[in-house]
């Protein structure tokens, strides 16, 4: 059995799915009420020719396929639809610049990074394409990621992708057809009419925020008609989204999935799984209510969700490369990267939805120490030591972020430190041999070591190492290809 063991999912209560990446934090969200969907669904016909086991098998496949779609749909509702969600950022086609990094108070997205202040927006591409304009940025790393309703990364701008130069880029929805307009550097095509737009801008240190804000102020999104100085087309109708939030996923997974499918057009590779979902009553325009099923089938769906989630955990435990207790894998990516592998896509979402492609950032997941034991900072103190000259090889920067082991949300702590990163190394205490030791524990290691302290929870811990713009195989010391690079991360060691 792999050393990497995600917390098993428990379905002790009928119709209640506890998805690890979406469970409540030790500290409750500021405002995250559970939304129970109002459904008036007709029962799925019991005379559909399916045995209970067949029905369960279809539901299990449907859960694995649908998990990323549901997570995305709920987050979109919290960020761009419901101004009272407690996580609201901005209406569609507007950018919300966060003049801060994410903290324990941010609960909509698990394993969020606290390195790069986000500028976030959701694009509504139904009426016309949108144009993203970015400035020249040479003094720091930044990236702009486009992610659709499938959770596919389908476009990048920024330091790596476009060389940090200014430009204007068009994002078109699935119904747009035409040539690249004048003044547009590149066209990106979304498979879905709604799309996430995520800017990550490097923060050098806490006093650097005014400089980040100056860059953020130059990020711009506008309709193509406005960019071209032409009359705007007719507005798209109100999408009338089903109310949804991340807290409500546990009770409304299948209902949310049906709602999400409304705005995720079927691609060729989706056809088979969509037909299986339709066979159990789930699809675009179909209101689904699990309570309308017979008791046997209700139980079958609950067991299917549990089994599907267990398969995702098993994949994350065996489908990644183990290096000194860290798990490395190239999980996120574009449509071609997943190529209809729904288990891989679900794993990518559960490990950290909206993660970057490997060429943009590599993620190392840490739940066990170098000896294979679960990291439990309620019982032990740990150290993470980078040998002299063995800091992560990156073109941009690296970080190690701490999360609660159970919720994968950031840890509230007395010094408001959620990570250590490359910019902090110069202020850290070095060992006599030039190595750098990070102290991972719930209590301060002492004033003389506090610069090297990464505060941990009073429970199991989950750590993510992020390597932004990692060194490729052509370099002497490399991260890529993932799991096969020449550089190896050090493991966590129980402090003596």
List the helices and strands and how they pair.
Layout: H1 52-81, E1 96-97, E2 118-124, E3 130-134, E4 142-148, E5 153-158, H2 159-162, E6 167-172, E7 186-189, E8 194-201, H3 209-216, E9 220-223, H4 224-228, H5 249-261, H6 271-279, H7 295-318, E10 321-323, E11 326-328, H8 335-338, H9 342-352, E12 361-366, E13 382-386, E14 398-404, E15 419-421, E16 436-441, E17 453-455, E18 461-468, E19 493-494
Helix pairs in contact: 1-5, 1-6, 1-7, 1-9, 7-9
Explain this structure to me?
The protein has 496 residues and is of the alpha+beta class. It folds into three domains: 20-82 and 243-317, VPA0735-like fold (Orthogonal Bundle), CATH 1.10.3360; 96-228, Immunoglobulin-like (Sandwich), CATH 2.60.40.1610; 358-494, Sandwich (Jelly Rolls), CATH 2.60.120.1600. Helices cover 22% and strands 19% of the residues. The chain contains nine helices and 19 strands. The strands form four sheets. Strands 10-11-12-18-14-15 form a six-stranded antiparallel beta sheet, with no helix packed on it. A hairpin with a 2-residue loop joins strand 10 and strand 11 (326-328). The radius of gyration is 23 Å and the shape is globular. It starts with 51 loop residues before the first helix and ends with a strand. Residues 1-43 have low confidence and may be disordered.
Q: Over the alpha carbons, how many angstroms does the gyration radius reach?
A: 23 Å
Q: Quick one: biggest sheet?
A: 6 strands, antiparallel
Q: What's the number of helices?
A: 9
Shape: globular
